[in-house]
Amino acid sequence: MHTLYLSTISLIERLHRQFLEVVKAELEALHIDDINNVQALMLANIGKDQLTVGELTHRGYYLGSNVSYNVKKLVENDYLAQEPSPHDKRSIRIRLSDKGLELCDKINEMFGRQAEKLRVAGTEDEDLKELMNTLRELELFWTDQLNQAGLIPYEFK
Predict the structure, then answer these.
(1) What DSSP line would sit under 130-152, residue for residue?
(2) DSSP character at residue 60
């Protein structure tokens, strides 16, 4: 069990890095060079939402990346629009600009193409549902471990 557990963790890390490479290749194919793969995924995760940088950070998707730096670059390259929060002037709300929405649509098209290729290769919806259930169980297990240690991150409370 110990070896299998460690192998699973290693596989999750490798899959994440490999997926980032897939996103990078898609950006290169689209001749988009003013955004990186992590920033592109940030756009996809923001989607049609309007949120604060803190809310984006608390979603917890960006381990190993500087969310504030990436948001700044996305604003500079016109993928994000920002405006002061109407209720708290210290807080900035962000949303996708027209350019960001356009790229987000392209990223979602990529996800659709990949899902179809996965289906054609023989992966069924039930296979993905089973995988998601197992990954959620692992997430709950890790969250419980953090909670027991008194280290539960804000985004999981």
Answers:
(1) HHHHHHHHHHHHHHHHHHHTT--
(2) -
Question: Closest by alpha carbon to 40, among 96, 103, 98, 82?
Answer: 103
The 10s digit of each residue's pLDDT in 22-49 is: 999 999 999 999 999 999 999 998 999 9
Whether the CA torsion 148, 150, 151, 157 is positive or negative: it is positive
* CB-based contacts of 32, cutoff 8 Å, min separation 6: 103
CB 14 within 8 A of CB 32: no
Give the tokens for residue 141: 């297990």
Unique residue bearing structure tokens 């984006």: 56
Share of the chain above pLDDT 90, in %: 69
Taking the C-alpha atoms of residue 82 and residue 50, their distance in angstroms, rounded to an integer, is 9
- pLDDT recorded at residue 141: 93
Alpha-carbon distance of 42 to 63, in angstroms, equals: 12
Of residues 89 and 38, the one with the higher pLDDT is 38
CA-to-CA distance for 89 and 112, rounded, in angstroms? 39
Q: Are 4 and 16 in contact (CB under 8 A)?
A: no
| Domains of the chain by start residue, with CATH | 2-123 (1.10.10.10)
